[in-house]
Design goal:
The protein is mainly alpha-helical. The chain has one domain: MFS general substrate transporter like domains (Growth Hormone, Chain: A), CATH 1.20.1250.20. The chain has 20 helices and no strands.
Length: about 450
């Protein structure tokens, strides 16, 4: 339980420059996952493939993220964190260079998978490094800046990459990301301090035992469905706007800005409101997401209505993410970081499956409206795990009361760190710092 102490208040001070370097790295990682959403037609035309097949670059990246975060963390466990971060960025750069050079879809998909593995490794370590670098009393602020880089990617990075891809060719953004990643790798290696004592790694088996609570898996199911519904549409937003709504290709980046802005507002609002009424926010967001998708299916031929609905899809579709992560952390009890990582994997699993099915729908007689129908059907499924979860919570309120301070999005910064067995030591120190600003991180 997080308590307030009478410790001497910590004076405000500027955060280390490393925090912003890490945020820039997360911005790169967030940009690369969906940058192809705005340039799928250009990729398809250049490679001589269908738009649906070009969409596999999103599906494969999501699959890489599913396995990349926990797997790469385990493989790099004994490496110094600054080496892990720098190597991740270098592999990221190599993967983008391969994509930019290749004319083979198979090679491009392999490179995207490699890039996703590097992204997973970076995410797993960046939050821990940020928390340690910020110092006592500043961990939440630092993590907010670092993880905010990923949200900012949806507002700026993805639309800018889409615009550049249309202006100079789709390979241009990949070259740009590769170049920036190389520079970031060097800066990261110089900025991250050498670790003197990392402590002993806790037992992964003990953490896995904490995932026996069935409610955790209901949350993971909800997380997969949430992303599967929204991102089935987002992945193929370009053909929806150009073919169904009749907008020019130049309007696609603007629509992506709208979606990103909606997602940014929705994520922050959902986390804030969800700390008080988690199930109320979850049910409202689920209902509105379904209604938005139905409206988009029926009204996508109206350009103005489509743009507005895309913004609303970002707003309501992303509003539940912080609540679901918080719930996973709360229900897992003794495995908060593992639960957070698996929630991230669940989000990406939904992205992979949703975009894969949406690709088939795009090639069907439904055309550009096919992915929207897929998204609506998936969104309707969300009420199954959500309803069961709500019923189980009402039957066992005492169980929920055991962890009142971890409710929903109100979990501590330590509990939202990506999973790493070695990160558990840092996680416990972060909690101590939040409970007592005078303690060391």
């Amino acid at each position: 339980m997080i308590v307030t102490t009478a410790s001497t208040p910590v004076r405000s001070r500027p955060l280390p420059a490393l925090i912003y370097v890490l945020a820039a790295g997360v911005f790169l990682m967030g940009t690369t996952e969906f940058i192809v959403a705005g340039i799928l037609p250009e990729i398809a035309d250049d490679l001589g493939i269908t738009v649906a097949n070009a969409g596999l670059t999103i599906t494969v990246f999501a699959i890489g993220m599913i396995v990349g975060t926990p797997t790469m963390t385990a493989l790099t466990l004994r490496l110094p964190r600054r080496v892990t971060l720098s190597l991740s960025l270098l592999v990221f750069a190599v993967g983008h260079a391969i994509v930019a050079l290749s004319d083979s879809l198979a090679v491009i998909l392999a490179a995207r998978f490699l890039t996703a593995l590097a992204t997973g490794a970076f995410w797993a370590v960046a939050a821990v490094v940020a928390a340690k670098a910020a110092g006592p009393g500043f961990t939440s602020k630092a993590l907010g800046i670092v993880l905010g880089g990923g949200m900012l990617a949806n507002v700026i990075g993805v639309p800018l990459g889409s615009f550049a891809g249309q202006a100079i060719g789709w390979r241009g953004p990949f070259w740009a990301l590769a170049g920036v990643a190389v520079v970031a790798a060097v800066v990261m290696f110089l900025q991250v301090p050498i670790e003197k004592d990392r402590g002993a790694a806790p037992s992964l088996r003990a953490e896995l035992r904490s995932l026996r609570n069935g409610r955790v898996w209901l949350v993971f199911a909800g997380a997969a469905i949430v992303c599967g519904s929204s991102l089935a549409v987002y992945s193929f937003i370009a053909p929806l706007l150009t073919e169904s709504s009749g907008l020019p290709a130049s309007a696609v980046p603007l629509a992506l800005v709208g979606y990103g802005f909606g997602a940014l507002v929705g994520s922050n609002a959902g986390g804030s409101l969800g700390s008080k009424r988690p199930y109320g926010v979850l049910f409202v967001a689920a209902t509105m997401t379904l209604l938005v998708l139905i409206a988009l299916l029926l009204g996508s031929h109206n350009a103005v209505a489509t743009i507005v609905l895309v913004v609303l899809l970002g707003l309501f579709g992303m509003a539940t993410n912080p609540i679901l992560i918080g719930m996973a952390v709360r229900f897992a009890d003794r495995a908060p970081t593992l639960a957070s990582a698996l929630a991230t994997s669940a989000f990406n699993f939904g992205t992979a499956v949703g975009s894969w099915i949406a690709g088939f729908a795009l090639e069907s007689a439904l055309g550009a409206s096919g992915p929207v129908l897929v998204g609506a059907v998936i969104a309707a499924l969300y009420f199954l795990p959500l309803g069961v979860l709500f019923a189980r919570e009402r039957r066992g309120p005492a169980a929920s009361a055991r962890y009142p301070c971890a409710a929903s999005a109100g979990v501590s910064a330590a509990e939202t760190l990506p999973y790493s067995p070695a990160a558990q030591d840092a996680s416990s120190r972060i909690r101590s710092a939040e409970e007592d600003p005078g303690s060391a991180v």
